[in-house]
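Provenance and format

Records in this collection were gathered into a single text stream. Each protein contributes a sequence line and a C-alpha cell line. The two records reproduced below are adjacent in the stream.
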Amino acid sequence: MGLGRRHRIELATDRSPSVLAAVQLAEVMALPVPELFRGENESAQTVILNLQYKGQPRTALALAPSTQRRNSFDLVFDLGTQMAFLRPERILRFVFGTPAAIELGLRAALALGGGPTGPYGANPEMNQLLTYLRRSVAPPTVTAIAAAGRALTEARGENVDVTKWLGATHLSAARAALVLTGDLAAAARVIMSEPMPLTPISVQRRLLDLVAFSVSDDYFTCRRHLGLQVA
C-alpha cells in the first residue's frame, strides 16, 4: 500500500473532517475505532486493511485523497459504506479477500459440525484449514460455529451461494450509509465517482436499490431509531 509511520493518523489530535467522521461513525455503528492512515495515491480509493500487530489482527482504513476532500453527507456516505464492513458479520469479506477463499473458509466452518461433504470433502487445502480451526479456536466457539453451520445446512442444503452473499453485503453497506445520511444525491455522487468499484454489482442497480430502500418502512424505522427522522 506504500504506507509508513508518517501516514498514520493520530486520532487524539487530528481534527480533520474525515477523522472526526470516522470516530463518530464508529460510535454510532457500535464499532471499535479503526486505525486510520492518510493515503496519497490520487487514483486509489478508501480501503479496509487487514493488519498484523504483535501477532494480533487489527483493522484499519486507508483514507484515499478523494475521501479526505469530501465533506458533509458525501463524506459520511463514503466512510459509512466502508465501515459497515467492519461489523463482525461482514469483516470476513476482507479477511479472506477473494470469493474463492471465502467459499473455502465457509466450507471449513460448516465442516466443524461433522466431516467435510460435497465437492470440498477431498480438498486438501480445506482439510488443512479445518485442522487448524479445530486446534486454534476455543472449544465453546467451535461448538457455536458448528451449531450455526448445521442450521445453515438444514435451511439451505449444500447450495450456499457465496457470490450472491458478497453482492448482498455491498447493497446492505450502502443502505446503512444511506440511513446515516438520508441523502440520495450524496449517495449517487459517491457511488458514481468510485475509481474501482469493489463490487461486481452495477452502479445502476446499486442506485436503484437505494431509491427503493429510501421509501421503505425499514428505512424510516432505522432513521427513527437513530433519532434522525424529520419531525
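Adjacent record:
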Amino acid sequence: MRFKAANVTAIIVALLTCPAAAQEVSVLALFEGKALLAVDGGKPRTVRAGESYAGVKLISANSEEAIVSVNGKRQRLRIGEGVYSAVSPQRERTTVTLTTDGGGHFVTTGSINGATMNFLVDTGATAVSMNLNDARRAGVNYLAGTKAYSQTANGVVPIYKVKLGSVKLGDITLTDVDGFVHQSDALPVVLLGMSFLGRLEMRREGESLTLTKKQ
C-alpha cells in the first residue's frame, strides 16, 4: 500500500470555548520553529513558536508537524491530513471530520493507549489492526491475546486478538476496543477498523467523512 505525501495544507477545525463558534486553522508550510498559518480563510501569516495569530498560538513546529493551541486546546497538525473536531452545541455530541488525502483514503493521526499512531480508516477491517512495532509502542501485551489467522492480500497471516485499553481520534476516545496484532511489520499504518468505527455514526459527504460518538 502506498501513500502519497502532500506538500501543503493540513486543516484542523477546533471548537472554541463559545459553542456557537469554531476556527479553521490551515498550515500552509512548516519550518523549524515556525509555520505559515491561515485562520478562518484569512491572509496567511508566518508565526514563530510562542507567538499567536487570530487567537491561535503556535506551541512548536518543525519540518514535519506543528502543535497549535486554540483557546487553550492543543492540536497536532501534519502535512497532508485534515481533522475537524468539535462538540455539537445542540446535542453535546463529539464529532470528528476527516478529509481525504487526495488518493481517496482517510489518513490521520490518533493514539492507542496514549501512543501516537498513523491511522487509515478501513471499513473493510473487522478490528483495529496494527503491526508488532506499533503494538509494542502502545504497550499492548499481544502475547497474552488469542492467537488466530487472518486472510490478507498477502495470504494467510498469524494474528493475536487483543483488547485495546483506549483508542483516540480527535476528541473521540473509546475504551476496551477489539484489536488485531499482525505477527509481522507488513502494515505501514494502523487500520482503523469496525471495532472502533462501528461504535460511531459515520456520514460521508464528498471528500469528507464525519464520525460522531453515539450517546
